[in-house]
Specification:
two-stranded antiparallel sheet, Chorismate lyase, 27% helix, 2 domains, alpha+beta, 266 residues, 10 strands, globular
Length: 266
């Protein structure tokens, strides 16, 4: 497998202030955060604590306004931002729900490889290897853990219409993903991030990716059934959960002879 450059930066968590829900948020804050940002931070606290779980309906804007002792417009602005960040999903006539990786629209947020022809669809997965080991220094640095701390290493191949198209190496913090085994991954039929969310309480909130054109080495060529030296796309991802905590390092090789990397910018 071609070794990609390690991520050289991470985004620091944004500091927001907010009083406890029971005391309101109207008093002055040393950071002078806009009121809607304080409400957003309080809603995020409830999401992170699991008060409202993925896929569940959250209280209405009116109920949240009463709870936090602010106007409904302030709550709406906070929820607008959470919706834009894909943390909640508005459904007309039903309310606002916590985003979940089990929804197709969320799954394709993190799967950017699209077919040149035909409809986008989920790949088939083959788990090649899962093992627990001591984290190499470069992996530990990205995951913000100590070198030598336990990590879960996963190697898998993804197939589109029976053709091996993506080879991945994934590192996860061992302390968070205790009990994750090859058998559990193989028997789970949904997306991997759905398993992380449901069984380990760790939804992936956002990710950064680095893309680079590389040449397939012998290992990748054998796995993906392409010639050694063939141009392929190398992708390195760092995924984050609540609190902007890095919880996954993923390095992948994409074969793009029948696919392309698709991203929408706004």
């Amino acid at each position: 497998m071609v070794k990609l450059p390690a991520m050289n930066s991470t985004l620091a968590p944004t500091a927001v202030s907010g009083q406890a829900a029971s005391s309101g948020v109207g008093s002055a804050s040393p950071t002078f955060s806009p009121l809607y940002q304080q409400i957003k931070a309080l809603i995020l606290q409830s999401l992170q604590s699991g008060e409202w779980k993925p896929g569940e309906l959250i209280p209405s804007e009116v109920e949240l306004a009463v709870r936090y002792k602010v106007s409904q417009g302030t709550v709406r602005k906070a929820i607008d931002e959470l919706s834009a960040e894909n943390l909640v999903v508005r459904r007309q006539g039903k309310g606002t729900f916590v985003a979940t990786h089990h929804e197709a629209r969320v799954q394709f947020r993190f799967l950017k490889l699209m077919p040149d022809a035909g409809e986008a669809h989920q790949p088939e997965n083959r788990i090649v290897e899962v093992k627990r080991l001591r984290g190499p220094a470069e992996v530990a640095r990205v995951l913000d853990i100590k070198a030598g701390d336990s990590v879960i290493y996963i190697r898998r191949v993804q197939y589109f219409d029976g053709v091996p198209t993506i080879q991945e190496e994934i590192w996860l913090p061992g302390a968070i993903f205790k009990g994750l085994t090859a058998e559990r991954l193989a028997e789970y039929k949904g997306p991997m991030y759905g398993l992380f969310e449901t069984e380990f309480g760790t939804p992936m909130i956002r990710a950064t990716e680095k893309l680079k054109a590389v040449a397939a080495d012998e290992g990748a060529a054998a796995t993906l059934n392409v010639p050694v030296g063939m141009p392929v796309l190398g992708v390195e991802r760092v995924a984050y959960t609540y609190g902007d905590r890095p919880v996954e390092l993923r390095r992948a090789i994409y074969v793009t002879s029948a696919h392309h990397y698709h991203n929408e910018l706004s």
